[in-house]
Each structure stands twice: as structure tokens, then as C-alpha cells.
Specification:
By secondary structure, the protein is an alpha/beta fold. The chain has two domains: 123 residues, Thiolase/Chalcone synthase (Peroxisomal Thiolase, Chain A, domain 1, 3-Layer(aba) Sandwich), CATH 3.40.47.10; 128 residues, Peroxisomal Thiolase, Chain A, domain 1, CATH 3.40.47. It contains eight helices and ten strands.
Length: 259
């Protein structure tokens, strides 16, 4: 799935493989970071190296990103931006995620329905569309045991997300009135009703159509939603977008973008 998503993105972007300066691969679960483990028994077969080879990204640095749960692709995009800022000769970074829950694992986790899926995002220097304006990430290691501290995570989720959204808007120099769309991770709609009420943002600005349609695609939600919004002509030039994400660990992230 990761290879298919990346190939489609490369074809659509028309960026030649030789211009990709780095590839960041993110997976939310440990099994996503081993390629062909069942066939070879080798835990050191890494999917990011396989992707770099299959996509012929000969100049690309290959890096795997893990241990931030469902925030993996969001973190990869943030690191891609930092990579471009610190490497003046690099023009593009390819970010890819893929996750498939193991057989027998329940697809309901903390009141959310989990789907398998993959996504690829191209981060480019000087892009005229979907500009990353500001991003913040918070980690609270006390909640590292996501099963043992299930109730505590639920209790901390809303006040932490509320604080993060407000501080991210402040850091980006925008107000909540400036935000045209909230692009969510596809956790339960009811949780979004609670959170948006806390930050005084209207539900009408939440792109919620994919929550019942595709469920929570682990690390990929924000970016699948953004792509669908673009394809469905929901965005207009200059729209300010707020992307919110959470991952076990426990990690919260918030990004302000401009379409």
C-alpha cells in the first residue's frame, strides 16, 4: 500500500526521483516498520529502504519515524519542512505512511473505528499551495502506557488539545475567526463536538464527511482528508486550515496551513 500511494503521488506531481532529497516513512504500529518479516524472519528489513529502492530515489536520505502512534505522518511532514529549511540544496521530501492491523486485533480502540490504509505526501520548497505556516507538538510521557492509562488519557485529551489549538493559533498569528476549515483525524464525531465547543469553533467548519466513510486510518487521516477536500473543490485560495492530530505516547500536534 505504501508503494502504491507513493507511486501515484510521484506520477501526479511529475517530480523526477532524482529531485527527492529525502524519504520519511512513518508507521503507527511496530509491525509497520518491518518489511517481509514473515518470509525472511529478519527484523532489520526496513520498509523505508525498500521504498527508496523501488521508487529509485537514489539521492534521497531514507529515515523511518516511529513511536508517535497515529501522529507519525504528521510528524514526518513537520520534519520534512525542517529538513528543507536546513538543507538549502534539497527541493522535495517524500513522506509515506502505511498501517495494517494484525489479524485478530479489534478495530475499535478507545471508541474509534480503525481502518487499514496508506498515504503519501510531497513537501516542496516554495510551494504555492498548502503552505505550512506553523506547527506545534506536545508529548506527555506520563501516558506512555496507553492501555494501563486509558482513562487518564481520555481525561487529558480534551484540555491538552484545547490548550494546544489556542497556542498554535497564537504562534501562527491567526485567530479562530481566520480558520476556514478544521481538518481532523477521524476519531469519533462526538469527541470533535466536545473539543470544538471548548475552543469556540463552529462544527460547520469541521470536515467530518470521512469520519463515517473511511474511519480512523491511523496516521493518514489529516492528509487523506485534505486530498479529498481538494478533489471535491471545497477549498479556496487563501483558506486557513487547522490540522489536529493525536497519537499514543501520548502526543498531540496542531498545524496551521494556508491553501
Amino acid at each position: 500500500m505504501a508503494l502504491s500511494a507513493a507511486q501515484r503521488l510521484m506520477e501526479q506531481s511529475k517530480v523526477p526521483p532524482s529531485e527527492i532529497g529525502a524519504i520519511f516513512y512513518a508507521g503507527a504500529i511496530p509491525q509497520s516498520h518491518v518489511a517481509g518479516a514473515c518470509a525472511s524472519g529478519n527484523p532489520f528489513n526496513y520498509p523505508v529502504a525498500l521504498l527508496q529502492y523501488e521508487l529509485e530515489l537514489e539521492r534521497a536520505m531514507a529515515i523511518g519515524i516511529s513511536q508517535v502512534g497515529c501522529m507519525g505522518l504528521n510528524s514526518a511532514v513537520g520534519l520534512a519542512r525542517d529538513f528543507l529549511l536546513s538543507n538549502g540544496d534539497a527541493e522535495h521530501v517524500l513522506c509515506v505512511s502505511a498501517d495494517v492491523l494484525p489479524c485478530g486485533v479489534k478495530r475499535e480502540i478507545l471508541y474509534n473505528v480503525i481502518s487499514d490504509g496508506a498515504c503519501a505526501v510531497l513537501v516542496s520548497r516554495g510551494s504555492e499551495r498548502n503552505r505550512l505556516l506553523y506547527r506545534r507538538q506536545v508529548t506527555k510521557g506520563y501516558y506512555w502506557d496507553s492501555v494501563g492509562k486509558k482513562n487518564e488519557i481520555i481525561a487529558a485529551y480534551f484540555p491538552t488539545a484545547q490548550h494546544l489549538i489556542r497556542s498554535t493559533l497564537e504562534g501562527a498569528g491567526v485567530t479562530k475567526e481566520d480558520i476556514r476549515w478544521i481538518i481532523p483525524h477521524n476519531v469519533s464525531r462526538r469527541s470533535w463536538e466536545i473539543l470544538l465547543d471548548l475552543v469556540e469553533l463552529p462544527m460547520e467548519r469541521l470536515f467530518a464527511g470521512n469520519i463515517p466513510r473511511i474511519g480512523h486510518v491511523i496516521a493518514a487521516d489529516n492528509w487523506i482528508n485534505l486530498r479529498d477536500m481538494m478533489e471535491w473543490n471545497l477549498l479556496r485560495s487563501g483558506d486557513k486550515l487547522l490540522l489536529v492530530n493525536f497519537g499514543f505516547g501520548a502526543n498531540w500536534a496542531c498545524t496551521v496551513m494556508e491553501y
